[in-house]
Every structure is written in structure tokens, then in C-alpha cells.
Design a protein that fits this description.
There is one protein chain. The chain is 56% helix and 5% strand. It has 438 residues and is mostly helical. Strand 5 (331-333) and strand 6 form a beta hairpin. The protein is elongated, with a radius of gyration of 31 Å.
């Protein structure tokens, strides 16, 4: 039996009977267990403690000692559980209460975790998968003086036979892959850039709502045989014609009026957001780049701003081929041996930029020329920008005609034009020293 001064001393006993031990006596007991030839079960029995609990103390002590103080970096799997996630399992009342303190609670948890893991002379590096929580966690960790990377989930290596997924397994896998350099970090914008991106995406959502309301109106009119006699819909004549329609039943008339009001609200929201985008351009660091991009044919404010907010700093692409691959505009390939098989584009990149590039590429169906509006809009720009814009117009119009003459579908030709248009936009964006946004 051990001496009285070497026994495990109880510091506190909780209401549930759980005992809290003194740290010094725990350290002495663990040190005794690490001596050669000592039985852990016997010592646990002598000190009146569970053997599995004692082995857990030993494992924790060994893991702490295995990290040298002079190590340049450490990769530690961490599983973070937010306050809102725990509250969701407790009902809607707890969720509403936790939403009021969620931000402050997360900052407190992150700061406590970082202080717990920090060691003198040890450099901590954190990583987590990109998701709906955004970049707030990355900014909080970097504010504490440590590195943090946001990882692209679609590019994380996965074993085909792995059928078990838990948060702990994911954290350990991320730590191992990050230490091995097998993870791909995404570009993270600063707060000002993210605000502009939210504005652009809000305008896109408003346009989708407006399109949906207009489709509902046209479906209602088509079901009841109301056909507009003019050529262009959604103009002044079209709305005047709709307000003059009458139905046999008052319910149908009410539905039409409600849809017209809903469409008008969506249209006004789009106009307000476009005005807000123009106002925000006055103090945005990338506004000069957006202005230079409008020298290209078919590129105006919304297209240029969408390209810049989604792509960000184009200097991270050393050549235009990298940008094309990032946007998913390069053809897929499945080749083996001497057989070369290429398919459609990969579509693995940013869908918003790919869409605006495809919409702009349709303007290159027509012969190359500088219109009056484009001339007055670009005459104050640098000579090199105007030369690139004219070179793009001459090449892309010729490219479209050549592909169509070879029998390619117009959609395929437009996709090829959009791919090369991204290269010209990359060249214009790099004509001047672009201000850093990270």
C-alpha cells in the first residue's frame, strides 16, 4: 500500500458523486505508472480509482510531453461545436435564445481553445472546410496571431471505401492532410470585398425573383388564351396591355393584379440594388479594374463587377489557362494510352462568372466594330487597354464564325468564345498594379 502522502487526494466531490482530484497527486500517480515494470491496474486498485480513467490520464500526459517546445509548428485535430448547434437539439426556444449571443459565444470559445493549445515557441496552424459559416472564424484566429486556412471541400482527397463519417474523423483527416500539404486553400476576401460580393449576389437573387414572377404572369395569361399582339414583352406597351385585360371571374383578375404588383416590387428592388452597386464603386479598391474591363465588347458594370468580386485578385493566376481551369471552362478529358478522349467543359469553377461570360460571349456573333457608346466610354482609358479590347473583339468574332462554319452548335461556339474572353479579361486586369485585397 502506498504511503499517505503519496495517495491520490480528492479535492471536491460533486452532487453526482464524481470526484475531483488534486493536480499534484495526479501527476505523482501518473509518474509512478510510467516507471518500468509497474502495473497500472494494481496502482489504480491501491488508490481507489478506475483503471480506464488512470490510463486516460497517462495517455493525456504522454501526448502533452510528446510535443517539444522548440517544434516549429503543430497540427492538432480540433472539433468545434457552436452554441447554435447545441441549442438546435434543445428546441426552438433555446435556438432563439442562443442566436442572440452566438457571435460573442463563438469568439469566447475560439479564444479559450487557442489559449489552451498554445505553447511557448510553438506555431499553431488551423484549417477548416469552407461552408455557410463564412470567413469569420478565420479572421478571429488570425486576430489572435495564428495562421488559419479555409479548405475547398470538393478538393479534399477521399478514399472510395470509406463509409464512416464523424466530426472527429473529419478533424483528424484534415489535420493529417494539411500537415502533408495535400489540401487546397481557397482565396479568402477581406471584409470590404465580401460586402461588395454580398451586394452583387443580392442583385442576382432579385433578378431571379423578377424572372420567376414574370414567368408566373405569362403562364397565367397563356392558360387563359391572352396573347400579347406586340413583339417585345415587358415594355411600356406590354404593361398597358396587361392592365387592360379582363377575366370572367373576379378571382382570376385578383391573381393577375397581385402578380403585377409582385413583379413591380421585384423590378424596383433590382433597380435599388444596381444603384447601390454604383454608389459602392466609389470607394472600392477594385473599382479602377472594373472600369477598365468595361472597354471589352458586351461587358458593362454588372458583368465586370461580378467577375472581380467572384475571381478576386487575378494576380494569383500566373497565366490565363489557370483562370480558365478555375472557372470550369476547359474541356474534360479521359485519355489512356494513345486514345485521347475529350468531353464537355468541366463546370467545376464559379458558376456565376461562367454564366456572365457566356451571356457576354453572345455579343461576338456580330462583326467587329466600335459602337458610339463603347467609344465614348473607353476613350479616356489607357492605350494598352483599348488595344487589348480591340484585339479581343477582332479575334473572338472571327473565332465564333470559324466554329459555326465548321458545323459546331452555336452554344459550343459561345462557350469557346467565353473561355478566351476570360483570358482577355485577365490581361486587362493585370495591365496595372492591382491593389491587394487579402
Amino acid at each position: 500500500m502506498a504511503d499517505d502522502d503519496q495517495k491520490l487526494r480528492v479535492r471536491l466531490v460533486g452532487r453526482n458523486g464524481r470526484r475531483r482530484y488534486e493536480a499534484a497527486s495526479k501527476e505523482r500517480l501518473v509518474a509512478s505508472c510510467l516507471e518500468p515494470g509497474v502495473s497500472v491496474s494494481r496502482l489504480a486498485l491501491e488508490h481507489g480509482v478506475n483503471a480506464n480513467l488512470l490510463r486516460k490520464w497517462i495517455k493525456k500526459h504522454t501526448a502533452t510531453r510528446s510535443l517539444p517546445r522548440s517544434s516549429p509548428s503543430a497540427f492538432i485535430p480540433v472539433q468545434l461545436e457552436g452554441a447554435s448547434d447545441r441549442a438546435l437539439s434543445r428546441g426552438s426556444t433555446a435556438h432563439r435564445r442562443s442566436s442572440l449571443i452566438e457571435n460573442g459565444w463563438r469568439v469566447l470559445l475560439v479564444g479559450r481553445l487557442v489559449r489552451k493549445l498554445a505553447r511557448p515557441g510553438l506555431r499553431l496552424r488551423f484549417c477548416y472546410e469552407a461552408g455557410p459559416t463564412g470567413y469569420g472564424l478565420k479572421r478571429e484566429i488570425e486576430a489572435l496571431g495564428h495562421e488559419c486556412a479555409v479548405i475547398a471541400p470538393s478538393l479534399i482527397p477521399r478514399k472510395p471505401g470509406d463509409r464512416i463519417k464523424t466530426n472527429r474523423r473529419d478533424a483528424e483527416k484534415l489535420a493529417r492532410l494539411y500537415r502533408a500539404g495535400e489540401l487546397t486553400e481557397i482565396w479568402t476576401p477581406d471584409a470590404a470585398h465580401e460586402a461588395m460580393r454580398d451586394l452583387i449576389r443580392a442583385r442576382e437573387a432579385a433578378v431571379k425573383d423578377r424572372t420567376r414572377k414574370r414567368q408566373e404572369i405569362r403562364s397565367l395569361l397563356l392558360r387563359h388564351g391572352k396573347i400579347f399582339p406586340g413583339l417585345k414583352a415587358w415594355g411600356t406597351k406590354y404593361f398597358k396591355w396587361m392592365h387592360g385585360l379582363s377575366f370572367a371571374y373576379s378571382g382570376q383578375q385578383t391573381v393577375l393584379q397581385e402578380l403585377i404588383v409582385a413583379e413591380a416590387q421585384c423590378r424596383e428592388r433590382v433597380l435599388r440594388l444596381e444603384k447601390a452597386i454604383e454608389d459602392s464603386m466609389l470607394d472600392w479598391p477594385l473599382a479602377p479594374v472594373v472600369e477598365r474591363l468595361q472597354a471589352l465588347r458586351g461587358v458593362r458594370l454588372i458583368c465586370a463587377a461580378t467577375f472581380m468580386v467572384e475571381v478576386g485578385d487575378v494576380r494569383r493566376f500566373t497565366n490565363p489557362r489557370q483562370l480558365m481551369a478555375y472557372l470550369g471552362l476547359v474541356p474534360s478529358e479521359r485519355s489512356t494510352g494513345d486514345a485521347v478522349r475529350r468531353g464537355g467543359i468541366t463546370k467545376t469553377g464559379n458558376a456565376r462568372v461562367r454564366r456572365v461570360l457566356a451571356e457576354t460571349a453572345w455579343t461576338y456573333r456580330y462583326p467587329a466594330k466600335f459602337g458610339k457608346r463603347k467609344y465614348f466610354a473607353s476613350r479616356h482609358m489607357p492605350e494598352v487597354v483599348r488595344e487589348i479590347a480591340w484585339k479581343a473583339q477582332a479575334r473572338l468574332t472571327k473565332r465564333y464564325r470559324a466554329l459555326v462554319a465548321r458545323g459546331k452548335r452555336s452554344t459550343v461556339a459561345v462557350t469557346a468564345v467565353a473561355r478566351e474572353l476570360a483570358a482577355f479579361m485577365w490581361a486587362i486586369a493585370r495591365t496595372d498594379d492591382q491593389p491587394a485585397t487579402t
